[in-house]
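hiii, so i know i said id send this last week but things got crazy w the move. better late than never?? heres the sequnce for the chain we talked about at the cafe, plus the structure i predicted for it. fair warning i was half asleep when i ran it
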Amino acid sequence: MKKQTAEIDKAKEHARYERSAKTLLTRINSENINRKIFGAEAIPIWLREPYTFYERMLEYNTDANSNALELGSGTGMHTGCVLEQVCKVTATDISKSSLEVLEYQLRDFENLKTLVCDMESLPFSENSFDLVFCSGSLSYGEPKTVMKEIKRVLKKNGKFICVDSLNHNWIYRFNRWKHFLRGHRTISTLRRIPRQETLDMYRDEFSQVKINYFGAIAWLTPLLRLVVGGYRASKVVSKFDNLINVKRSAFKFVMVAKK
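okay and structure toks below
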């Protein structure tokens, strides 16, 4: 029953992202819109730190000789920071229209290739990539299946780098349930949001895993930024994380896992 629900939910997620991307494509074709801001700079400053750290890890672990694979690329929010390292990047997603938007937005890069595929069944040989990376996409596949596929396609000593949400803080869980009730999430993605057990699974399967946690009180930033401004609010959140050595109460995490 869970497998059947997951397949139905996958179709729903695919349809939702297709609709959104097709709307963007219509605007691109009719209005000749300029390319939007990408990456961490597109994130509100008070929520930006995990994404800035994620991009720093990507840049640190790639060079011109790297062959990189992105899972759940969507419209290319963080694809560009790896492309800028002049390495080969294969951006993948289940939504063809999303990849068409990505291709338009990043059309100046000759080192980009896109492919429609499912992260639960990657159409690549073993030991194909030096780097696999993704942002906020782990909940779109069955965790163990996705992890095994990532490990399979990575070369020896290759790395998997991701930024995603953690599902332990009850405030964030409540907010995600609201999105589910509004039809912005499926029950399968809600169940698959990474937990500490998910991260422990990567620790068991990879030779070396480093995890940084962020945003234990990120839910307070709307109020904090009204009082002290967005920049200072981000500093307060960061200092609190360091003070309590945030882990299970974190909003986001960045994981670097070496095969």
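btw Strands lie at 67-70, 88-93, 112-116, 129-135, 154-165, 208-214, 252-258. thought thatd interest u
miss u guys!!
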